[in-house]
């Protein structure tokens, strides 16, 4: 039988939380958090429950001192307990008198202060550490003018009469569970770390956070406090990921050695399955397509606690079976077969499910999806403008095409992109397709033609780098990127329909015109042409992009000049 130290008395939140965790646990009840932790440190109990956060009260102060107190053991798990507060008095036969004094724990008063201010503005509030003893005292001395606030269970257990129920809505408390050993990863974990009191250093906090940001690691909670004695800043962080995760380890190591520059300046409080105080509606995603992008997204959605199922033409479970099981169906197959796939599987979706298209073409695919699915099916297209080799989506562009049928499931998926730092543009189907002409079709076409040309003229690779200018380097970089990845991806991009086609076509016409003018040595004509196009490009746009290109130059060239 496992033994648990928690806050009492019997029937209190701490008591109920511990029993919810293990029904036949042996409980040791205390009135103060430090006493609970001490019982754990002295190995009187196997685990301890410490309340750390309440949805109405906010942070519970002692929690920050966990690190001083927790010299052995780890924070290994959490439990979120819904709290149902009631207002009660001693049973009385005469008509009840309005209470003069209201007794409760200080934390409980904070949770229901709206109710007390509204209903009993003149009563005296008396906070007590031992609510059990206070209730015994009220009973023994027949204090009819007193009222008590606590859980209905506790009030009834002590023979009090309930006057009002559920006096603080949306009231939940998160308990940290302390144990002797770190648990292994579950795949949906978080870790808590705390710094030592830090010396003053300009930009320290920003630099600490930057180590997580650049590795695409999300921070769930950040608190800071001044150490009472030294008045130096201490930072507490709760971060996504288990401490066994390589990227997280790297980030913590860099923080110690490069940012704080002091050994043992970070302390791991523990790793535990992540707690979601927010409500998520989606439970599961099913992918049609088992390729690179499906795998990339599925892995990150799993890390968010969603169940994912990848299906294709040769998977154990096929798309038909998968669709019947999931909340959201994601279509992620080559663009050229997306419409056929939608037509084949769309009719199987039921109202209340969502279909999200992860595809590089919008107009035809959304049209097909609107027709192939019932009106109660949510619908949205997301075009991520990064490939599967990207480590994270931080600061990468995403085009999101919402439809009148994009509802809360679609918003939740969009919130997932936003959370991971994607830069989202909301586009109409035609705007997406037109801009992909500029952003994808054309550069891909140019890069493909450039590589063909180099080959045709037997230009040696060694000579390409040594004879490029700062400007021509960009085109070479784009060509190299494209020829380093899956050719199918780029062949598909060049072949998609929609408004993007007209961009490539007019480029080709313009190119031929420029070639003729150049061959005719029409220098003034070419100058005029450049000036004329420049009048369309705003000075701000040009200045900003010149600045960015200089930043690229400084990385690509040794001198940076
Ligand atoms: N790879 C990339 O860099 C990016 C791709 N995308 C989009 O993601 C989608 C998928 O691309 P990837 O995952 O990269 O492709 P991929 O080639 O890695 O995977 C495609 C998947 O579709 C399946 N498939 C192929 N033909 C099929 C058919 N006729 N019927 C059913 N399934 C079929 C394949 O078996 C494979 O599982 C495309 O719409 C693409 O535009 C978006 C952004 C970046
Ligand atoms: O990595 C790159 O340069 C890409 O071009 C990735 C890419 C490929 C296909 C898309 O539809 C969007 C982005």
UniProtKB/TrEMBL annotation:
SUPFAM superfamilies linked: 6-phosphogluconate dehydrogenase C-terminal domain-like, ACT-like, NAD(P)-binding Rossmann-fold domains, Periplasmic binding protein-like II
UniProt keyword Methyltransferase, yes or no: no
Protein name: Prephenate dehydrogenase
EC number: 1.3.1.12
Phylogenetic placement of the source organism: Bacteria, Pseudomonadati, Thermodesulfobacteriota, Desulfobulbia, Desulfobulbales
Catalyzed reactions per annotation: prephenate + NAD(+) = 3-(4-hydroxyphenyl)pyruvate + CO2 + NADH
Residue ranges occupied by any Prephenate/arogenate dehydrogenase domain in the UniProt entry: 283-549
Residue ranges of every copy of the Prephenate dehydratase domain listed in the record: 3-180
InterPro entries (UniProt xref): 6-PGluconate_DH-like_C_sf, ACT-like_dom_sf, ACT_dom, NAD(P)-bd_dom_sf, PDH_C, Preph/Arog_dehydrog, Preph_deHydtase, Prephen_DH
Organism: Desulfotalea psychrophila
Keywords per UniProt: Amino-acid biosynthesis, Aromatic amino acid biosynthesis, NAD, Oxidoreductase, Tyrosine biosynthesis
Top-level taxonomic group: Bacteria
ACT domain location: 193-271
This protein's pathway: Amino-acid biosynthesis; L-tyrosine biosynthesis; (4-hydroxyphenyl)pyruvate from prephenate (NAD(+) route): step 1/1
Protein biosynthesis listed as a keyword: no
């Amino acid at each position: 039988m496992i033994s648990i130290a928690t806050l009492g008395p019997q029937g209190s939140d701490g008591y109920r939380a511990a029993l919810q965790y293990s029904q036949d646990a042996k409980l040791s009840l205390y009135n103060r958090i430090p006493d609970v932790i001490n019982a754990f440190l002295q190995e009187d109990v196997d685990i301890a429950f410490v309340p750390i956060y309440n949805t109405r009260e906010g942070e519970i102060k002692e929690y920050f001192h966990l690190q001083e107190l927790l010299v052995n053991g780890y924070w290994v798990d959490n439990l979120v307990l819904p709290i149902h507060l009631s207002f009660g008095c001693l049973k009385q036969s005469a008509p009840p008198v309005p209470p003069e004094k209201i007794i409760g724990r200080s934390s409980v008063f904070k949770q229901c202060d709206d109710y007390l201010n509204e209903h009993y503005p003149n009563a005296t509030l008396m906070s007590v550490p031992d609510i059990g003893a206070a209730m015994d005292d009220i009973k023994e001395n027949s204090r009819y003018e007193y009222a008590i606030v606590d859980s209905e269970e506790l009030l009834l257990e002590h023979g009090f009469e309930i006057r009002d129920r559920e006096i603080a809505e949306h009231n939940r408390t998160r308990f940290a569970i302390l144990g002797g050993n770190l648990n292994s990863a579950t795949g949906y974990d978080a870790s808590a770390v705390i710094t030592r009191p830090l010396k003053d250093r300009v930009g320290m906090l920003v630099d600490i956070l930057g180590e997580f940001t650049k590795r695409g690691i999300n921070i769930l909670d950040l608190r800071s406090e001044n150490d009472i004695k030294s008045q130096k800043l201490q930072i507490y962080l709760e971060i996504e990921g288990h401490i066994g995760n390589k990227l997280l380890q790297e980030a913590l190591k860099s923080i110690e050695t490069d940012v704080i520059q002091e050994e043992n300046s970070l302390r791991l409080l523990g790793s535990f399955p992540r707690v979601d105080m927010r409500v998520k509606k989606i439970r599961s995603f099913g992918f049609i397509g088992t390729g690179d992008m499906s795998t990339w997204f599925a892995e990150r959605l799993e890390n968010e606690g969603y169940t994912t199922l990848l299906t294709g033409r040769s998977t154990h479970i096929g798309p038909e079976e998968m669709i019947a099981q999931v909340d959201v169906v994601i279509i992620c197959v080559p663009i050229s077969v997306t419409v056929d796939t939608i037509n084949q599987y769309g009719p199987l979706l039921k109202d209340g499910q969502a279909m999200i298209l992860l595809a590089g073409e919008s107009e035809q695919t959304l049209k097909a999806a609107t027709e192939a699915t019932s009106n109660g099916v949510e619908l949205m297209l997301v075009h991520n403008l990064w490939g599967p080799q990207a480590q994270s989506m931080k600061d990468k562009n995403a085009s999101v095409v919402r439809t009148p049928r994009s509802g809360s499931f679609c918003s939740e998926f969009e919130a997932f992109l936003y959370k991971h730092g994607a830069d989202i543009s909301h586009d109409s189907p035609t705007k997406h397709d037109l801009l992909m002409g500029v952003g994808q079709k054309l550069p891909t076409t140019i890069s493909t033609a450039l590589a063909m040309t180099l080959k045709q003229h037997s230009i040696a690779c060694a000579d390409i780098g040594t004879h490029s200018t700062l400007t021509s380097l960009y085109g070479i970089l784009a060509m190299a990127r494209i020829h380093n990845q899956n050719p199918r991806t780029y062949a598909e991009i060049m072949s998609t329909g929609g408004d993007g086609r007209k961009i490539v076509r007019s480029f080709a016409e313009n190119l031929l015109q420029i070639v003729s003018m150049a061959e005719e040595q029409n220098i003034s004509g070419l100058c005029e042409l450049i000036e004329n196009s420049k009048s369309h490009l705003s000075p701000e746009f040009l200045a900003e992009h010149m600045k960015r290109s200089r930043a690229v130059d400084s990385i690509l060239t040794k001198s940076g000049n």
